[in-house]
Amino acid sequence: MSRPRLRSSSSSVSSYANDLLSELHDRLGSGTLRPELAHQLFDKMLRQPVPVTARALNGLFVAIARAPPSATFNNGPALSIALFGPMAQARRSWARPPDIYTNNILIECCHRARCPDLGPAFFGHLLKTGITADAVTFSSLFKCLCDMRRTEEALDIVLHKIPDDLPDVICYSVMLKSFCDNGRSHHALDLLRMMAKKGADHSPDVSSYSMVIDGFLKEGEMSKALDVFHEMIRQGVAPNVVTYSSIIDGHCKAGAMDKAEGVLRQMVDNGVRPNVVTYTCLIHGYSISGQSEEVIRLLEEMRTQGIIHNNFTCNSVLDYLCKLGRIKEAAELFCSMAEKGHKPNVISYAILLNAYATEGSLVDMADLFERMVGDRVVPDHHVFNIMIDAYAKCGKMDVAMLFFKDMLQQGLNPNKVTYLILISAFCRMGRMDDAMDKFSEMIDMGVPHDRNVYRCMIQGYFRQGDLVKVKELITKMKIKGITHGP
Questions:
Q1: Is residue 309 scored above 80 in pLDDT?
Q2: Based on the structure, what is the number of domains in the chain?
Q3: Per-residue pLDDT for 92 more than 50?
Q4: In a domain? residue 422
Q5: Contact predicate 321/330, CB 8 Å
Q6: Does residue 349 register a pLDDT over 60?
Q7: How many CB atoms neighbour CB 450 within 10 A?
């Protein structure tokens, strides 16, 4: 009779451990899992004589790590790492110790939680347990090393410390990206060629080549990017829409629109369909070169091919029209954005608001700002600075200060540009007491201030003939090590 009771008791305990695990998952799914509660439930679960399986715990770690930020916690990967501490200490209560999957999850979490220094520590722990690392382990470890700008160390591991057949394309891609992101695309190219020589599972794919091409383009080395582009074709790797769009963008930024169009034709001939990014690159290129007819042609071409403009495309054209002074056309495009399924964002509003402000159309600017608020688009620093500057330049400081107060009520602290706008306006108007109030407030708020702000104050006092204040400000500049220029 004792055996059934023992089985019943064991089943009950195991069920309770699984209930705790289910509660963790439920809380996570409903967005009510706070870090403190996670630790409490997790500790209870670990204390159960019959624990949940390693597979179930791995699933929990993955779920927490991938959870989007919420009101209860905003760093899932960091919480996964924190929960592992008591788990490692309570190892004797485990049916099985943490396996390769657990360690892989945790090393990846170190990268995603922006705690890359913990990655090598977890990797060392894995080696001590006698678990054999796999390609996933090394790709996560390399991410951590590259985050710490120790890419050469990752490369040394590949070349000298692990079996030649272990690293895969993903492992290499981590290092390629790190080299390119840090302006070292030449090192990335050397690695790319080494991968090509090894062949088999090491051969670079289209993503690898595209990464290096983009790296060279960001460094302004168009000829090198083209060399890699032609090299990939010789190696039998077909460029995709990302590769072609990068090359087109490079030509557009260099003003070589005929070459960009040539790559576009090559792209279409090879059966690769241009997307919204491709067209946006071309539109931006024609915009900066002042070829408005081509911009209109491309917009029409996008429409006929069923390629929907995104906000970036519309904002590029909007900015282009405003810089040409074609405000009416820009306003028409702005109004049509919502009709085409692209709700104007804060950048769209800022572009048109700035155009109205530059033109001196304060009524249109005010109407647009009201529409922005009505559309529930939250103004940012740039928008508020545009509004404050527009009214300040017209001498309407009472209105400018209303926007300044509105900015504070929105929870936005004024930045250096905001204070410079107000101080300059008060100094121009001879309202030096108000200027000094804002100058002192700027310093008290810890907002960085440079010689431009001091120069406004000095010029303001100089125009009033207050040389004592001028000398005081110059002395303060010297004490703070700010050069005042001529």
A1: no
A2: 2
A3: no
A4: yes
A5: yes
A6: yes
A7: 13
Burial class (CB in 10 A: 0-12, 13-18, 19+), 326: middle
Give the span between the Cα atoms of 212 and 336, in whole angstroms. 38
What share of the chain has pLDDT > 70, as a percent? 93
Q: 88 falls in which pLDDT band (50, 70, 90)?
A: low
DSSP conformational letter for 160: I
Phi/psi at 39 (nearest 5 deg)? -65, -40
Residue 350 counted as domain residue: yes
Q: Name 319's Cβ contacts closer than 8 Å, sequence gap at least 6.
A: 287, 351
- Residue 205: its pLDDT value, please? 92
**Among candidate residues 378, 404, 438, the one where a domain is terminated:** 378
Q: How confident is the model at residue 314 (pLDDT cuts 50, 70, 90)?
A: confident
486 shares a domain with 401: yes
**Same-domain check for residues 363 and 433:** no
Domain end, chosen from 378, 405, 425, is at: 378
Q: Model pTM?
A: 0.70
Q: Is the pLDDT of residue 14 over 50?
A: yes
CA distance 302 to 384: 34
Query: What confidence tens digit (pLDDT) does each residue in 156-208 have?
Result: 998 888 887 778 888 999 999 999 999 999 999 999 999 988 877 778 999 99
Q: One-letter amino acid identity for 149?
A: R
- Does any domain span residue 334? yes
In a shared domain, residues 403 and 466: yes
Judge if 456 and 426 occupy the same domain.
yes
| One domain for residues 373 and 436 | no
Is the distance from CB of 318 to CB of 327 less than 8 angstroms?
no
455: domain CATH number?
Answer: 1.25.40.10
* 342 domain-assigned: yes
Cα 219 to Cα 184, 186, 215, 278, 432: the distances in Å are 9, 10, 6, 20, 47
How many angstroms from the chain centroid is the CA of residue 465?
A: 50
pLDDT attached to residue 332:
84
**Residue 143, C-beta contacts closer than 8 angstroms, at least 6 positions apart:** 108, 111, 116, 119, 174
Q: What is the distance between the alpha carbons of residues 477 and 299, in angstroms, rounded to a whole number?
A: 52
The domain containing residue 421 runs over which residues?
A: 396-486
**Pick from 140, 141, 238, 219: which is nearest to 179 by CA?**
219
